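Task: complex structure prediction.
Instruction: return structure tokens for all chains below.
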Amino acid sequence: MEIKNSDVATLIKALQDPRTGLNWLALEILGLIQEGKTSQKSYLEPGQKRRKSGQTTEPYTETEEMGVALAVLDSRIVAPMDYWEKALELADEATKKPTTPTGGIGVIPRRPRVPIKLSLIDDLRESQEFVPDEHEAKVIVMRLKELLAEARSEPQ
Amino acid sequence: MRSQLLQEIISELQGLNASSPSLLQQTATDKIFEIFVWSCTLKALRTIGATLQTRDATDRPTTSLQFRLGPGMIFAPTTTPGFVLVSYEGKEYELQNGLRVLGSSKVLHELDICILQRTAAVRCRQNRIHPEPSSVCFLAECKYYGGGLPLHLGREYLGLSSEFTLRVKTLVANTAKNDVQTLVKRHRGTTHFDILPTDQAKIDRFVGWLATELEHVL
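Output:
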């Protein structure tokens, strides 16, 4: 299908490049753009005096195509880091044991709590452990977050 | 977009592939969203006063929980993730993720998040059999999409829903689509959409709903 926005076309080509290895992301962007956007439309049937309302699907504009691409990059690359960190925070909160004594007199020695550690194993890649909080990856994701925000704020 | 900005974005994506290729797998981002919803369920269990203990895939206590990209079988520790042993009001359960469970048609389904009766789970491990639908107390189907939810996901959820006749089951997603919500609601299902890590109010409402419902079924 033809992409109206030349920058989106460039981005998709780059995603499909084997060096980038993100063909699935390119397909997701293409699929969403191809689906189009639903909107309400009013129409007048022949012989009728009152306009009626119905739902239609329209193609995205050039500007909207870029909006779709940026939204997908954000949700697929940047946001997962936020989800992972929130999951760690919630899991840690939920598994905290009370450290205050519940009754009686005396000193109860406090043992340091071992925080829960979460990890994700990729069995298909020889059990490679996927560590979303790996420093280098985190730095790149944070940089991408800034770049995407800059792209969204550019005048169209 | 300025061509320099576009090139910078592309360059960072290439750098990410080099430094952390697993991060860029589609299945990884889907799984991370499941783990996030799993952690909300964990918080809800804590809220109702359940005692929680993390266990590894061989049912031994651990402080390091491992999740897996693919679905697992409860009796095969090399395929299953770790789980959380839940004690509540004198009974025990297991909070599981990515587990294969039999539906009422005897077809195996992967349940993104579920709570199983502990006695049934232990029996399954010992006898190397799959859990039956009667052992499931709660399930959540998680969907993570870059754009709006496609309608077929609503239909798929209804299919899964009919295989597990539970009081508490829900479709959870990071985004929303009116027609999916309408479809599921029409068939008396529940949905929780737009659950984002940046929206604490939505997370609190979702956890609150989970806590109320779990209190009634456990």
